[in-house]
């Protein structure tokens, strides 16, 4: 492999990525993404089209206040219109008004577009290209030309496509980015066309691919191997139709597989969090199977694979997930064997203390629960709790006493609402009664549970449910069928899944809710390395004092676990 060649990363998530039909970012979102991209080490951030809307104009104003360390901000626009001098063209003026160090303009290179879309002569277009670049070069440090439809244009009229890029090269453009705008080309075509373009102009070349043939990443790699020095794309492949080339995969492939340098090596491991941030701000569920950064990307389920990775992770993994900031996961299922259980217990840091009888017991319990319809795929947290309970290590943070849920509907044309009343016994032995209204019974119950527990455990304030799935298990049993509820929760730092099962959807949801809360509290206990306390110096504490005592870091008394009474009516282990 040759010495690491540097590849410029040009991110257009904030412009082309926002062409996705389901992506809409506020100015604040865009600024946050820009900061993350700068930290990752991308070289260019295309902020938008200053002429197209007020939001993009606001972004260009605000971005100047951020002190970006590495990335240069680019403003995007199109070549001047026909029959207008560049200096008098409104869109070019708007690009200049963004006052960015880089301008990127898109122009025609496919004769079909010149004739049919612009309806001008082929020569007039060459003048427009030359004139636009020459004008911008007088006012902006760096000018990039996006050669729209270059590969399609080259396929039908190679001489004209090359004449177009020669026109911008003559005008002094800094880089010509060849675009597969319709996303219809395949890697071998990209390669051959790149070579022809390289022979025709001395300017550095870049590549901008769309994913309509699902090879945008492969096309980008082919172009880099044929000499492209700049890659344009978006985080997670957001973009119009099937999206743009996914920069996350491109950066990982170029850097880890081919030895190019795209970002600083120590920043590669922030790829996963960059991907997640963009999903979160765009309010789009992360793609489970996304290469490199998806949750399933390094998830192993079959027992054979799990025993393989325990001997050597390379047996079933193409890279170490940590290199891109991802984690290895092992899921449990009816396919699981001892290897999966052992892997899990090791992951939770208890393997050293497990006897083989305990492992067998755990495996038996798991198989029994799965026979009943529980699944621990996507419910790692419930499994961890099951394991701790089997080992006698689980401690419940409150005792369940009772709940009541009622649904009210008052008018045919109005949505019903639900109210939940919940009684629990807190860690201080006090019984409290809390009620809450919700848009459905589970929502009401969830609110009442939080209301009851937040005084004791303020960290629950940050926890929220992010996904709730109900699946009917017994086909043909009609409304008497059992349902399985999977809940995904987050506290902003981690995500975890829990499961509940019952013929009553509220009860199944309750089980999953309880596990979710218990898991969060269990992790908090481990994190603070402070044993949970219910009294200090023998004094019983109420919730507020308890919270205060925790934050003061006072030593707790050793108090017996509250026991498992709240699970007696419905926890996974007890219920089944
Ligand atoms: Zn594009």
Account of the protein in words:
It is a single chain. Strand 12 and strand 13 form a beta hairpin. The protein is 39% helix and 18% strand. Helix 9 crosses helix 10 (247-257). The two termini are 58 Å apart. The chain is α/β, with parallel strands linked by helices and 576 residues long. The strands form 5 sheets. An 8-stranded parallel beta barrel has the order 1-2-3-4-5-6-7-8, surrounded by 9 helices. It has a 3-stranded antiparallel sheet with strand order 11-12-13. Bound molecules: zinc ion (ZN).
Give me the Rg, rounded.
29 Å
Q: Please tally the β strands and state the result.
A: 18
Associated small molecules: zinc ion
Question: How many H/I helical runs?
Answer: 20
User: Structural class of the helix and strand makeup?
Assistant: alpha/beta
User: Approximately how much helix is present in the residues?
Assistant: 25-40%
Calculate the terminal CA-CA distance, rounded to whole Å.
58 Å
Strand order of the largest sheet: 1-2-3-4-5-6-7-8
Mean pLDDT: 86
What profile does the largest beta sheet have?
8 strands, parallel, barrel
Q: What percentage of amino acids are in beta strands?
A: 15-25%
Shape descriptor reads: elongated
What are the segments in which pLDDT stays under 50 over at least 5 consecutive residues?
A: 530-576
Helix-strand layout with pairing:
Blueprint: E1 8-11, H1 27-40, E2 44-48, H2 54-63, E3 72-78, H3 90-97, E4 102-108, H4 111-118, H5 122-139, E5 142-148, H6 150-156, H7 158-170, E6 175-180, H8 187-200, E7 205-209, H9 216-225, E8 230-233, H10 247-257, H11 271-282, E9 299-300, H12 303-311, E10 329-330, H13 338-347, H14 356-372, H15 380-390, E11 399-408, E12 417-425, E13 431-438, H16 441-453, E14 464-472, E15 483-490, E16 495-502, H17 505-528, E17 535-536, E18 539-540, H18 543-552, H19 565-568, H20 572-575
Helix pairs in contact: 1-2, 1-11, 5-7, 6-7, 8-9, 9-10, 12-13, 15-17, 16-17
Bound molecules: zinc ion (ZN).
């Amino acid at each position: 492999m040759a010495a690491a060649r540097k590849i410029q990363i040009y991110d257009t998530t904030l412009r082309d990525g926002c062409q996705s039909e389901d992506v809409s970012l506020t100015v604040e979102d865009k600024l946050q993404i820009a900061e993350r991209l700068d930290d990752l080490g991308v070289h260019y951030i295309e902020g938008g089209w200053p002429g197209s809307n007020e939001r993009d104009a606001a972004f260009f104003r605000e971005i100047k206040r951020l002190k970006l360390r590495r990335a240069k901000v680019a403003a995007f626009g199109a070549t001047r219109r026909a029959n207008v001098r560049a200096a008098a063209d409104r869109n070019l003026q708007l690009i200049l008004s963004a006052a960015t160090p880089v301008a990127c303009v898109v122009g025609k290179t496919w004769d079909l577009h010149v004739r049919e879309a612009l309806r001008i002569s082929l020569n007039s277009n060459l003048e427009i290209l030359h004139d636009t670049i020459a004008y911008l070069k007088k006012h902006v440090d760096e000018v990039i030309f996006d050669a729209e439809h270059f590969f399609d244009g080259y396929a039908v009229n190679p001489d004209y496509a090359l004449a177009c890029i020669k026109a911008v090269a003559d005008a002094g453009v800094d880089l010509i980015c060849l675009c597969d705008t319709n996303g219809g080309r395949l890697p071998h075509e990209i390669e051959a066309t790149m070579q022809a373009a390289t022979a025709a102009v001395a300017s550095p070349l870049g590549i901008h691919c769309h994913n309509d043939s699902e090879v945008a990443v492969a096309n980008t790699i082919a172009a880099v191997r044929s000499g492209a020095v700049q890659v344009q794309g978006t985080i997670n492949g957001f973009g119009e139709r099937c999206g743009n080339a996914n920069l996350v995969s491109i950066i990982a492939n170029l850097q880890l597989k081919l030895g190019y340098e795209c970002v600083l090596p120590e920043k590669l491991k922030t790829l996963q969090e960059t991907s997640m941030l963009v999903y979160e701000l765009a309010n789009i569920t992360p793609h489970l199977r996304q290469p490199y950064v998806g949750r399933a990307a390094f998830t192993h389920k079959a027992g054979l694979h799990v025993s393989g990775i325990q001997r050597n992770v390379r047996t079933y993994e193409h890279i170490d997930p940590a290199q891109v900031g991802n984690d290895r996961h092992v899921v449990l299922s009816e396919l699981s064997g001892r290897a999966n259980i052992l892997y899990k217990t090791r992951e939770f840091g208890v393997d050293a203390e497990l006897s083989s009888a305990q492992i067998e017991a755990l495996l038996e319990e798991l198989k029994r629960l799965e026979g009943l319809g529980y699944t621990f795929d996507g419910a790692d947290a419930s499994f961890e709790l099951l394991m701790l309970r089997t080992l006698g290590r689980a401690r419940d943070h409150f005792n369940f006493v009772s709940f009541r849920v009622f649904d009210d509907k008052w008018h045919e044309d109005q949505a019903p609402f639900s109210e939940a009343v919940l009684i629990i016994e807190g860690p201080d032995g006090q019984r409290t009664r809390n009620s809450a209204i919700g848009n459905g019974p589970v929502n009401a119950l969830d609110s009442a549970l939080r209301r009851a527990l937040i005084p004791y455990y303020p960290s629950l304030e940050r926890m929220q449910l992010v996904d709730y799935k109900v699946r009917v298990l017994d086909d043909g049993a009609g409304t008497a069928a059992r349902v399985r509820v999977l809940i995904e929760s987050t506290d902003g730092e981690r995500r975890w899944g829990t499961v509940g099962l019952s013929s009553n959807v509220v009860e199944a949801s309750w089980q999953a809710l309880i596990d979710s809360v218990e898991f969060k509290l269990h992790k908090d206990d481990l994190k603070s390395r402070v044993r949970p306390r219910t009294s200090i110096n023998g004094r019983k504490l109420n919730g507020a004092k308890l919270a205060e005592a925790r934050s003061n870091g006072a030593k707790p008394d050793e108090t017996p676990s509250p026991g498992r009474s709240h699970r007696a009516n419905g926890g996974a282990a007890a219920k089944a």
